């Protein structure tokens, strides 16, 4: 039930350029991105409400260009400052459509690129604040909405040929029986996770072995390795990982868009002897027909993609083209909660599992809410579902992701878990924070 709250107005929309020097340790390194500095274009929405609660959202970037994302968020400020805070799902949806519909900013996309990511940061911050004021973690807030309310919030524009509103409503109504039981199971057992930390391309063979061994000991049943720079190196690293984890643990591979189509097929087949579970982003994320061709050629190895997919319409086409075995939506790439809902509904309609992209700055914190909501209220399934996990930067958040026995614990703190600690905001502000002044 939605709690009735006192009226409030938005008094400030503050932005921050936050960067972590992760390239120093090789964190996040892969064949396409050898030296990422995990970063966040971070927004704080403040109001005049006496509760003092704030909404927080972010765009995830990997260093240079983070200032561009900050500027894009700043461009949305005139739509927010001084306006009345939205206190219902319908009000939040109207706000989303108004922000997304700024014709001059939309021209820069439309619905793709930095302006769309900025929209997502702001919309997610508004939902974060709404969930905090309702006293619920975001996944629970969404799961408590009726199917009719969820369909009204989901952005289903341009999807009618694949997912008309009545079909979306049917998906949600079919999931209603058993919601309470699934929620209880989620709280008791958590949500399956897989470990990406063993696989950074900049790490030594010894690190691959030790990190893979530790992941298995911690209860993970899947790990991921970065591939695509050098085939002999990939063969050696895959051999090391498979020997360490044994045949009962899945190994996913991630090429980070490195290959041409023929190369993707040849390279994946060359690694097939190590029984890879999926090959992730084997080519350009916009190569819909190419991904479909790769999928046909490398089966039974699955094809996974989506972290760089710009919007729900491209996801629709990927699914229509039978280009994906695994949908990897990103909480900070698309236009926020309304579009994330539509992508979850699309995947459920096509029967394709969602295994969200995480890692980065805050992505683990955010996507665990989406996965939990999907399980409880949309797909109702855990089979072949897993959420990426990396073991760094969580300490900078007030509600950090927690892993127990290889599973994400269900978030219990009100909001979207997107709040950075004040001391981290100060220390990692770019270029004047203490970390960067001493770099």
TrEMBL record:
InterPro entries referenced in this protein's UniProt entry, alphabetically: Enolase-like_C_sf, Enolase-like_N, Enolase_C-like, L-fuconate_dehydratase, Mandel_Rmase/mucon_lact_enz_CS, Mandelate_racemase_C, Mandelate_racemase_N_dom, RHMD-like
Cofactor(s) it depends on: Mg(2+)
Annotated EC: 4.2.1.68
This protein's UniProt keywords: Lyase, Magnesium, Metal-binding
Catalytic activity: L-fuconate = 2-dehydro-3-deoxy-L-fuconate + H2O
Cited Gene3D superfamilies: Enolase-like C-terminal domain, Enolase-like, N-terminal domain
Residues in Mandelate racemase/muconate lactonizing enzyme C-terminal domain copies: 205-301
Highest taxon of the lineage: Bacteria
Top-level enzyme category: lyase
Entries under PANTHER family matching the protein: ENOLASE SUPERFAMILY, MANDELATE RACEMASE (PTHR13794), MITOCHONDRIAL ENOLASE SUPERFAMILY MEMBER 1 (PTHR13794:SF58)
Name of the protein in question: L-fuconate dehydratase
Lineage summary: Bacteria, Bacillati, Actinomycetota, Actinomycetes, Kitasatosporales
